[in-house]
UniProtKB/TrEMBL annotation:
It comes from Candidatus Roizmanbacteria bacterium RIFCSPHIGHO2_02_FULL_38_11. Catalyzes the attachment of L-aspartate to tRNA(Asp) in a two-step reaction: L-aspartate is first activated by ATP to form Asp-AMP and then transferred to the acceptor end of tRNA(Asp). This is Aspartate--tRNA ligase. The keyword Ribonucleoprotein does not apply. Residues 188-191 are annotated as: Aspartate. The keyword Protein biosynthesis applies. It comes from the Bacteria. Keywords: Aminoacyl-tRNA synthetase, ATP-binding, Cytoplasm, Ligase, Nucleotide-binding, Protein biosynthesis. L-aspartate binds at residues 166, 209, 360, 364. It catalyses: tRNA(Asp) + L-aspartate + ATP = L-aspartyl-tRNA(Asp) + AMP + diphosphate.
Length: 606
């Protein structure tokens, strides 16, 4: 087993070491090859000879060599190991990698989120991406430790349940042998049962909700950090405990994750000595005064309201976190305890951080008769959860609890724009691991690979993949006109990117325009100061592009000829084109097409 890691080399100056890891980057200086070796602790520069030309990015290798101090002029302050380097004596390739679709050596992977997630097994290796989950590990570990210090006991809650804890339709139903069951949307019932066993409990749990949502704040599967405890004298003890935990988490992240925070230029949220606390109606009055938008009769805060009240909290209280309490009973689960001094409102609360909800909690109803009545009012058949009811039949102390969303906390700490970035393997209505749409695309591509050798398509695919661009590849019957192509693709004629090979002053060029328009040759010649312009013959098209006329893709750059694109094509959100064959098409967003081809944009259609 590997016992020496990259960061350990810092204390091994002058010694011979054996390091194992992945090739992060290679810089070829002819007789000297510099290799950046990466493992989970960091990156170290390796100085090698010409033999190192055999290795490629992401190869798993062993390198044996002497740890040396770098010259002062060569120190890299961006690396923990920036003052040392490994002078290699020998190396061994343990596992050869295929060519990665992304450049992993960049400080930031500048690709779209869908691409980042579609290549998750690879992108998670990137130091900036893995940093997210080092912080998440600290958050979860700190949650555990903070509660253990208070005498709480951890338990494991089931994922398959007979009854939903909160009612509603946002649950995944599963066939459980010959019966119906559900995937847990909350460990709530089991937390309360366990209060009757250990009094103070917590669980780190996967919860699943069938929410048909693709917002930046929601997932179908999340990791929740739940706590529940009994013998409370006031519901405010719950808020006090939640505040203790989140501050404990911040302290541990501050101690353990400065490097990871630095990669995102992020700092911990500002928190006052005591996190501000407002009732919902008080918050709504403040929002109305600040924005002029009257939402004082709404039962909850909307996302823009959460952002606004967090701004107020920072400006007036010096805190980026704020507790909001006393939500209407109609907005909270049936088991939530109503405030006897504020009828219709509950002893419940949310913790908002940097404009997003991080936690929800409250006191629970422990009187069996009241619980049954509340369930009946919501038409929830609670009798299906017999174990839950047993807990109240045989005595339950005053109790309550709360649930943090671990992804929400990490998203807030690093100020990520989308919660999917804070989930190792995010699930939503569009993906389980890989996007459902991409699975179909991959099937088509693999089918074409078996049937046809298409080097032009492979060039396009490589270019798009390298730039992190999503596209849809479609195989269809042979088409020879723009009208036939539009029909078989299911697109409008104007969405077709018609690529024409022409000779301008005897040099081949490519003109691309919507398939329903024609080239205005006079305007093109005038705009670009061209004396002679003519259409290429079929033989000339084949010579320039190596494909048949009518199947030329609008990628002048892969044929090393100047590409002109008519501006009217950009009026389409999505464009389509033949990809080197009459039986192969690609659909792509226009802005991504422009990004991939870097054309000269003009106005030459009619």
């Amino acid at each position: 087993m590997k016992t020496l890691f990259v960061e350990d080399a810092i204390s091994k100056i002058g010694q011979e070491v054996e390091l194992y890891g992945w090739v992060h980057n290679i810089r070829d200086h002819k007789k000297i090859i510099f290799v950046d070796l990466r493992d989970h602790t960091g990156i170290i520069q390796v100085v090698g000879n010409e033999k190192f030309k055999k290795i490629s990015p992401e190869d798993v290798i062993m390198i044996k060599g002497i740890v040396k101090k770098r010259p002062s002029s060569m120190i890299n302050k961006k690396l923990k190991t920036g003052e040392i380097e490994l002078e290699a004596k020998e190396f061994k390739i343990i596992s050869k990698a295929q060519t990665p679709p992304l450049d992993m050596s960049k400080e930031t992977l500048n690709v779209s989120l869908p691409v980042l997630l579609d290549y998750r097994s690879l992108t998670l290796r990137h130091p900036k991406i893995s940093a997210i989950f080092k912080i998440q590990e600290t958050v979860i570990d700190s949650f555990r430790n903070s509660l253990k210090k208070k005498g709480f006991i951890e338990f494991q809650s089931p994922v398959i349940i007979p009854q939903t804890a909160e009612g509603g339709a946002d649950v995944f139903e599963v066939k459980y042998f010959d019966n119906k069951a559900f995937l847990s949307q909350s460990p709530q019932f089991y937390k309360q049962i366990m209060v009757g066993v250990f009094e103070k409990v917590f669980t780190v749990n996967k919860t699943l909700r069938a929410e048909p949502s693709v917002t930046t704040r929601h997932l179908a599967e999340v990791t929740t950090l739940d706590a529940e405890f009994g013998f409370i004298e006031s519901w405010t003890e719950l808020i006090d405990m939640a505040e203790y935990i989140i501050k404990y988490i911040f302290e541990e992240v501050k101690k353990q994750n400065q490097e990871e925070l630095g990669l995102y230029n992020s700092t911990l949220p500002k928190v006052s000595t005591k996190i501000p606390r407002l009732k919902l109606r008080e918050a709504q009055e403040i929002i109305f005064a600040r924005t002029g938008k009257d939402k004082r009769n709404e039962p909850d805060l909307q996302p823009e309201d959460e952002k606004e009240i967090c701004k107020w909290s920072l400006e007036k209280k010096g805190s980026e976190l704020i507790f909001i309490s006393h939500y209407p009973a109609s907005k909270r689960p049936f088991y939530t305890y109503e405030d006897p001094d504020d009828p219709g409102y509950t002893q419940s609360f949310d913790l908002l951080g940097r404009g997003v909800e991080w936690l929800t909690g409250g006191r629970r109803i422990t009187d069996l008769n009241v619980l049954l009545k509340k369930a009946q009012e919501r038409t929830i058949d609670i009798k299906k959860s017999e174990l839950y009811l047993q807990a109240f039949k045989y005595g339950m102390p005053p109790e309550g609890g709360f649930s943090f969303g671990s992804e929400r906390i990490v998203m807030g700490l690093l100020q990520l724009s989308n919660i999917r970035e804070a989930s190792l393997f995010p699930r939503d209505m569009e993906r389980v691991d890989v996007r459902f749409s991409l699975i179909d695309q991959i099937k088509v591509i693999e089918k074409v690979k078996v049937k046809i050798n298409n080097p032009v398509f492979e060039k396009i695919k490589k270019l798009l993949d390298e730039k992190g661009i999503h596209y849809e590849a479609v195989e269809h019957k042979a088409v020879y006109t723009s009208e036939e192509a539009a029909k078989v693709r299911g697109t409008l004629l104007k969405q077709g990117a018609k690529a024409l090979i022409m000779f301008a002053d005897k040099k081949p060029v490519m003109l691309v325009l919507p398939a329903d328009l024609k080239v205005d040759t006079k305007k093109f010649k005038s705009d670009y100061k061209i004396r002679d312009l003519r259409m290429a013959t079929a033989q000339e098209v084949k010579k320039v592009t190596s494909v048949e006329i009518g199947a030329v893709p609008p990628f002048g750059n892969i044929f090393e000829i100047t590409l002109y694109v008519d501006s009217k094509l950009g009026e389409n959100e999505t464009v389509s084109f033949n990809a080197g064959l009459h039986t192969k098409s690609i659909k792509i967003k226009y802005k991504d097409f422009e990004k991939a081809t870097q054309p000269i944009i003009g106005e030459f259609s009619k």
